[in-house]
């Protein structure tokens, strides 16, 4: 699954630079995650970096975008040009 940012986001700006896929951007009110680019850091790190740095713990799994580890890895390969 890709991740999502909930409305508890305080716009602290720490998650955006941590994303290796540039999936996080400033939305109209809070940051948002592009599910087409989010791989939960599969291929880059062992754990999602945005979740690690978020001070308010507002980045859960996005139930609207279910994906297996294999699908996340395939997306990583495509995004990184290693496919």
UniProtKB/TrEMBL annotation:
InterPro entries attached to this UniProt entry: 4Fe4S_Fe-S-bd, 4Fe4S_Fe_S_CS, PSI_iron-sulfur_center, YfhL-like
Gene3D superfamilies hit by this protein: 3.30.70.20
Occurrences of domain 4Fe-4S ferredoxin-type (ranges): 1-29, 31-64
Any one GO cellular component localisation term in the record: cytoplasm
Domain of life, per lineage: Bacteria
Keywords (A to Z) from UniProt: 4Fe-4S, Electron transport, Iron, Iron-sulfur, Metal-binding, Repeat, Transport
Database matches in PROSITE patterns: 4FE4S_FER_1 (PS00198), 4FE4S_FER_2 (PS51379)
GO molecular function, one term: 4 iron, 4 sulfur cluster binding
Keyword Lipid metabolism (UniProt): no
NCBIfam families in alphabetical order: di_4Fe-4S_YfhL
Protein name per the record: Iron-sulfur binding 4Fe-4S ferredoxin
């Amino acid at each position: 699954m890709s991740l999502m940012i909930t409305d508890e986001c305080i716009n602290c700006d720490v998650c955006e630079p941590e994303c290796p896929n540039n999936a996080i951007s400033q939305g109209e009110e809070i940051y948002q995650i592009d599910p087409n680019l989010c791989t939960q850091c599969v291929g880059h790190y062992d754990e999602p970096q945005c979740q690690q740095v978020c001070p308010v713990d507002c980045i859960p799994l996005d139930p609207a975008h279910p994906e297996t580890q294999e699908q996340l890895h395939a997306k990583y390969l495509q995004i990184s040009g290693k496919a």
